C-alpha cells in the first residue's frame, strides 16, 4: 500500500525552472509525486521532468494528449523515454487513439491516465460542448471507453471515484484533482472533496495544489495533508 506521501501529488504550476526546483526542494519530504503540466512543460520542456527525477521523486506528466492516434502514440513513446511515472491522455480522443497509446506504453514504467471529465466542468459547461447529461454519466461512459482500449488509469473528480472504481476494478489507478482540505477555497474547481473523503471513495492519488502553494507554511500544509491521507488509508 502506498504511504500518504506517495499518494500526494503537487502540481508545479510555474513557468520557471528555478522556481520549480525550489518547490520540489521544499516539499519533497512530504510529497511523493510532482506534476508537470502544460504551463511548465511548454516553458522549459523535458528539463522539468529531469528536475523532478533529480530530486528522487516521481514525475506525473500532465499533458492531456488529445490528437490523432499516430501523434498520440509518438508523444507517449517520448514520455516513456523520459521515464515519467504517469502520463495523461484524454479519453475523448477515442478508442483508436487510446489503443495506440496503450501499445506505446506497454511493458514500460509509465502508467497512462485517461482524463474523463475535467473538474472545472459542470452540467452547464458540458451542455455547451454537446455532452448532454450529468458529469458523472459522461465520466462513466468515457471511463468505459478507456478501459476497453486497455487504459486502466483514470482522472476524475472526487464525486465519480466510487463509480469509476467499479469500471476499472482494483487493478486500475484513479487520480483525483479538486481535493481541498476542509474549509479551503474551492477556486475554479466545481466538484471537490476533502482528502479523507476522496480516499474513502477509492482514490489512489490526490492532486493538491493551491491549498499547499498558498498556505502560510507550505511544508506544514503538505505534511498535514499527507498525514490525513495516511490516516484515511489505514
TrEMBL record:
Is-annotated flag, keyword Translocase? Answer: no
Question: Where are the active-site residues found?
Answer: 62, 64, 67
- Summarize where substrate binds, as residue positions: 13, 35, 62-71, 119, 180, 189, 209-210
Task: Tell me the pathway.
Answer: Pyrimidine metabolism; UMP biosynthesis via de novo pathway; UMP from orotate: step 2/2
Superkingdom of the source? Bacteria
Q: Does the keyword GTP-binding apply?
A: no
State the name under which the record lists this protein: Orotidine 5'-phosphate decarboxylase
Which source organism? Answer: Sandaracinus amylolyticus
Amino acid at each position: 500500500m502506498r504511504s500518504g506521501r506517495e499518494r500526494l501529488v503537487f502540481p508545479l504550476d510555474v513557468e520557471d525552472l528555478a522556481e520549480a526546483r525550489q518547490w520540489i526542494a521544499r516539499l519533497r519530504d512530504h510529497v511523493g509525486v510532482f506534476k508537470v503540466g502544460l504551463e511548465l512543460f511548454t516553458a522549459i520542456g523535458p528539463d522539468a521532468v529531469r528536475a523532478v527525477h533529480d530530486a528522487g521523486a516521481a514525475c506525473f506528466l500532465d499533458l492531456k494528449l488529445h490528437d490523432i492516434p499516430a501523434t498520440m502514440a509518438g508523444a507517449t513513446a517520448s514520455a516513456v523515454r523520459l521515464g515519467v511515472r504517469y502520463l495523461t491522455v484524454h479519453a475523448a480522443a477515442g478508442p483508436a487513439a487510446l489503443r495506440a497509446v496503450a501499445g506505446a506504453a506497454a511493458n514500460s514504467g509509465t502508467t497512462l491516465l485517461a482524463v474523463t471529465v475535467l473538474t472545472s466542468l459542470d452540467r452547464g459547461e458540458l451542455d455547451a460542448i454537446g455532452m448532454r447529461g450529468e458529469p458523472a454519466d459522461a465520466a462513466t461512459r468515457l471511463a468505459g471507453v478507456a478501459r476497453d482500449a486497455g487504459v486502466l488509469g483514470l482522472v476524475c473528480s472526487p464525486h465519480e471515484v466510487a463509480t469509476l472504481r467499479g469500471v476499472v476494478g482494483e487493478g486500475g489507478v484513479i487520480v483525483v484533482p479538486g481535493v481541498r482540505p476542509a474549509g479551503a477555497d474551492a477556486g475554479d474547481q466545481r466538484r471537490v472533496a476533502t482528502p479523507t473523503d476522496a480516499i474513502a471513495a477509492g482514490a489512489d492519488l490526490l492532486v493538491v495544489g493551491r491549498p499547499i502553494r498558498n498556505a502560510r507554511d507550505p511544508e506544514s500544509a503538505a505534511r498535514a495533508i499527507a498525514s490525513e491521507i495516511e490516516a484515511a488509508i489505514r
